[in-house]
Amino acid sequence: MKTLLCTCLVITYLTSALSANDWPISLDMACNKALSAVACTFEFTNNANEDLYLLKRGTPLEGLFSQFLTVSVAGSPIEYDGIFAHRLPPTKDEFVLLKAGEGISASVQITDAFSIDTDGLYTKWFGAYTRQRAFRVFDVYNRIKGGLAGYAVTYVNGGPYCKPSWYGYTYRGYSTTTVWICNAFYAFPVSCGSPGTYTKEFGLIHEWSHAFGNTFDHVYGFIQSQDLARFYPDTAVDNADNYGWNYCEWQ
What we know:
The protein is α+β, with helices and mostly antiparallel strands. It folds into 2 domains: about 90 residues, Immunoglobulin-like, CATH 2.60.40; about 130 residues, Collagenase (Catalytic Domain), CATH 3.40.390. Helices cover about 25% and strands about 25% of the residues. It has 6 helices and 12 strands. The strands form 4 sheets. Strands 1-2-6-7 form a 4-stranded antiparallel beta sheet, with no helix packed on it. Strands 3-4-9 form a 3-stranded antiparallel beta sheet, with no helix packed on it. β3 and β4 form a beta hairpin. α2 crosses α3 and α3 crosses α6. The longest helix has 20 residues. The radius of gyration is 24 Å and the shape is elongated. InterPro entries: Lys_MEP, MetalloPept_cat_dom_sf. It comes from Amphimedon queenslandica.
C-alpha cells in the first residue's frame, strides 16, 4: 500500500496492486491542508514500454465517488461518508489511455467524504468519527450553551456532600440549575491553561455537561479520558471530563 503521513492524517491508497514490483503503473500521492480542507493529488505513471488503458472506476481519476482510500487520525480510522454507487459493468468511456512513459494526475478533496477534525482534537477526546457520536457531542455543547443562556444557574459554596478532593457536584439532567462548589475548586487557576491543567473553567464545563447534557463520570483524568476516546468512543461521548478537556484545548 502507498501510505503518507500528512498534517496528523494517515492516508492510505487502497489499490495495493499498484505497489507491486511487477506492476507497470506506479502511483505517487501528495496531500496538503488548507484551513479545514485536506486535498490529495494522485499521479499515475505508465512505466511499461507499451500504451495501456487504465480503468478510472474506483480511483481518484473519476473523483471521490468510492472509498478508494482510508484515512485515520492519531491511529483512529475515520468513517467514509461519501457516495456509494450501484454500478453497471464498465463501459469503454470509463477507461483512459496512458501512453508508455507518460502520466496522468487527479486531485480530490478528501474532506468532502471524510468528516475530519483536521486539528485532531475531536478524535483525541471523542474517538473515531461517526455521525451518531458527533451528534451527541454537538448536542451536549449546544445544551450547555442553551442552558446557560436560558436558565438562572445557582452556585452554592460548600455543598453538604462536599469532600476534600471534590471540585463540586450537581445532578444529571437537561435543565439542572444548581451547581455545588467544593473547596478544591478554589485551589486552581480560573482559565484553561496548558493541556492537562486543572482549572475552574475546566471544572465548570465538567459540571455543566452533567447538568445540561446528561453526561456521566465514567473516568477522570487527562490521560484516562484520551484512552477512553481511543478504545471506548461510545462511552467517551458521555463522559464529563472529555468535554472539559476538549473545551480547554480549544481555548
